[in-house]
Amino acid sequence: MNRQSLKENTGERKRTDQIDMKSCGWENHMSQHEIFDVFDERMRKIGQASRKDVHAQGLWHQTFHCWVVKRAAEGGASLLLQLRHKDKDTFPGMLDISCAGHLLTGETVEDGVRELEEELGLTISFHELLYCGIVPQETVVTPQLTDREFNHIFIYECEKAVEEYSFQLSEISGLFEVGLNEFKRLVYGARESIEAEGVVVVGERDEKRARIRRTIKRDDIVPQPKAYYDKLFGTLNENDCVVPARRAEVDWEEES
To answer: Is 182 helix (H, G, I), strand (E, B) or coil?
Structure first.
């Protein structure tokens, strides 16, 4: 895989989602005083604000997203999904991107690579990542709470077994592998469900891990707009990681 330029023009506009307050667990004390750089809708820096104020005022800020792909998986390439901790401030207990986090004030997108070490125990160089692009996304939580993010999307190839990851227990409750092509069909609406295998933490103090197999549906996954998946799977396809879905198989329906 070769890293693409960070100067790629996004072109795509954001999607607005109306999210139920209870389902996303918005009110949470964790990290509310972190300071982010904030931007206008054209991604020009306009100042700084706390995480709490950024979300309360609907200010644009930056995130780092990295999808971990395993090319040598039996039956074809696979993607790593994280199971978000039940105490997360957004989308608790749902399946999500392999690794993701906010960029703090003064950080560049290159600094986002720290999230891979913090969340998955992967110490790597930024130059080992493959860049997909930026997708602006707006999520309306309530009329008073709006999350506006510029998502920088990356891919990282890793051949580790799911049991070998040392993941951050305060953020993640488990990790799952899914077939890359099956996941693509699921999020594009061509499949109702797919199978996933992974590990989850168990015990009163999350001190043990248990192997688990589960069926997942689109509603189990943190929602992303079509523009987001187009960039992700377009880049994976260009690097021979995914079989393009037939046009007739894809019937995208935006979450409402």
So the answer is: helix
